[in-house]
Amino acid sequence: MPDRPRRGPRLAFRRWRARRPFWGGLLLALGGGEILLTEKASLKVVMHIGMQGLAGYLLPTLMLLLGLLILFNPSQRLFYSVTGILLSLGTWLTSNLGGFFLGLLLGATGSCLTFGWLPDQEPRVSRRERRKQARAERAATRAAMADGVEGTA
């Protein structure tokens, strides 16, 4: 069977994912979702009630919304990531110590990944591939040198 490009939903998803800060948005959304789930914990589990009013639910909801906006509108990723880190840090006071640290860490990590993502960046070449290319270049150089020595003799 000839080698032909694979088609299908998996390849389409991979192409869609490559054009946006996917992991950053996903982690920010998961952090907001986790904090929202800890808001529903029983009082025996809750360590810090905080303001427990509107802010306790508003900040993680906005984190979840920002994570989704990063995924579906990556052109504004810098604004979303800065706002996401501020909201993540704000949940420390308003939402059970940031969802028992887990939601806070997920949100902060996702925001940092989003802030550092660069579009149109060349894909990284693995160390194994770089070594393979270096070996091929050295072998080509040696072969050229050997041909040059044989040609002069």
Short précis:
By secondary structure, this protein is mainly α. The chain has helices spanning 9-18, 22-39, 54-72, 77-94, 96-100, 102-116, 127-152.
Q: How much helix, percentage-wise, in residues?
A: over 70%
Radius of gyration: 25 Å
Computed structural class: mainly alpha
Beta-strand residue percentage: under 5%
Shape: elongated
Output mean pLDDT.
85
Order of helices and strands: HHHHHHH
Largest sheet: none
Q: How many beta-strand runs?
A: 0
Kindly, what is the distance between the CA atoms of the first and last residues, rounded to a whole number of angstroms? 48 Å
Low-confidence segments, ≥5 residues, pLDDT <50? none
Put simply, the count of helices is 7
Question: What does it look like?
Answer:
The protein has seven helices and no strands. It is mainly alpha-helical and 153 residues long. The longest helix is centred in the C-terminal third of the chain and has 26 residues, at 127-152.
What descriptors fit this protein?
153 residues, mainly alpha, elongated
